[in-house]
Structure formats: C-alpha cells, structure tokens
Amino acid sequence: MDKTTAMQKPFSLELSFTIEINQGDIDDIMCAALEDGICHWCSSATVVGEYLGSHAHEQISRGGKLLLQDAEDDIQYELTQDKFLKGLRLFLERGHSDLINIKNESIDPCDFDSDCADRVVQLALFEEIVFC
Questions:
Q1: Rounded CA gap, 111 and 53, in Å?
Q2: 100-101 and 76-79 as β-strands: parallel, antiparallel, unpaired?
C-alpha cells in the first residue's frame, strides 16, 4: 500500500453520549405526530385510562399510554413512554443526529416536523419505518 492510498482510508469514530429531553420536548413531538405526522396510517389515538394532561399528546410524557388505531386493519398499537424514548433514540441514531445539540446535550423539538414525529412513533412501535 502506498502513502496516497493509506491517506485516503477513512477513520471510524464511535460516539457515545447522553442527551436530556424534557416533558415539553416529548409533548411537542407527540403533538406533531398526532396532528399530522401519523395520520396517513393511524385513524385515531385513544388515551388509555384517565387523561394525565389536558390533551392526548401530553399522555406519553406523563407516563400514560395511547392506543393508535391502524387506518386499514383492525389493529391497535400501544404507545408508552418507554417505547417513545426507544423510538426517539433509534431515530437519532439512524441518521438524524444533526438534530442533536451536542454543546447543550439536548434536542430542539422545533426541528421535528410532522414527518420526523411520524418516524419517531413508527420506530417506537415497530423498530423500523413500516408506513411510508
């Protein structure tokens, strides 16, 4: 191997860090998901038990559950806070790390449009994007 070839070889760096998200961040992402993001595959979202906030999009950040009704089949998917956090982690790991503010160790939910919110929910439920 000559020196030119050796210099062209890319280097890999594995990064590991923690980001902080708050209740409002989750609420904002869930609001985008429920208002527009998941509407192409989900016909309704039902709060399980009593409302833990004023609106359905506040349920997940407060430890509640939502049942999401498949628009084409008689299937309901249960979304919980643990699933949501897993979906958000997968979303950020799979190519959306640009939404992480490394300096502040946070995300800005204003950067999450309805498409991003949809992908977070789908990754939370299915660990992959099922509905395009």
A1: 23
A2: unpaired
Distance CA 76, CA 91 (A): 22
Residue 132 lies in a domain: no
Q: Which residues lie below 8 Å from residue 56, measured CB to CB, with a gap of 6+?
A: 34, 45, 46, 47, 66
User: pTM (2 decimals)?
Assistant: 0.84
Token code pair at residue 23: 């209740």
Range of the domain at 39: 21-125
- What are the pLDDT digits (tens) for 70-109? 999 999 999 999 999 999 999 988 876 666 666 666 777 7
* Model pLDDT for residues 41-53, shown as the tens digit of each residue: 999 999 999 999 9
Q: Is the residue at 81 inside a domain?
A: yes
- According to DSSP, residue 20 is labeled B
Placement of tokens 């800005």 in the chain: 108
Cβ contacts of 23 within 8 Å, gap of 6 or more: 61, 62
Widest Cα–Cα separation across the chain:
68
Gap between the Cα atoms of 122 and 87, Å rounded: 7
Give the tens place of pLDDT for each residue, 14-34: 767 688 889 999 999 999 999
